[in-house]
Amino acid sequence: MRRIDAESAFGIYPALHYRLDPEGIRAAFTLDLTTNFGNHHQILMVVTRSYPFRPPFLYLLTNIRGPHKIVHIYTVDGRLCIFEKLERDWDPKECDLVTAIGWGAT
Fold it and tell me: Which of 38, 44, 45, 62 is paired with 9 by a 20 to 30 Å CA distance?
């Protein structure tokens, strides 16, 4: 996990401009994940000023090859789905950044 500044986050993932401006970002990180099968992926985690009441945004930076349909990527900015509004998965009393990383890894 490496902390990066807001401007670097926009440089890494330009589609952030669809949802945020640099002043709306509290912190940003890049995360390296390795699957049980040895596949390596990189995720951008963006923590907004509304954290912990709203979950961080996660973006997959790694291009996944093959005929895989990524069903947990949504919205025009390509965010990973870690928060279902109807089920209220994100609970600021129970969830933290580690929770979001775990959800992003699945």
Answer: 38
How wide is the angle at C-alpha 80 spanned by C-alphas 76 and 82, nearest 5°?
125
| Residues 47/26, Cβ–Cβ less than 8 Å | yes
Instruction: Give pLDDT tens digits for 38-76.
Output: 888 899 999 999 999 888 988 888 877 665 555 556 566
Give the CA count within 13 Å in the CB-facing half-sphere of 81. Answer: 11
From residue 73, alpha-carbon distances to 23, 49, 87, 104 in Å are 25, 22, 17, 10
Q: What is the DSSP letter of 88?
A: T
Residues 24, 48: Cα–Cα separation, whole Å: 6
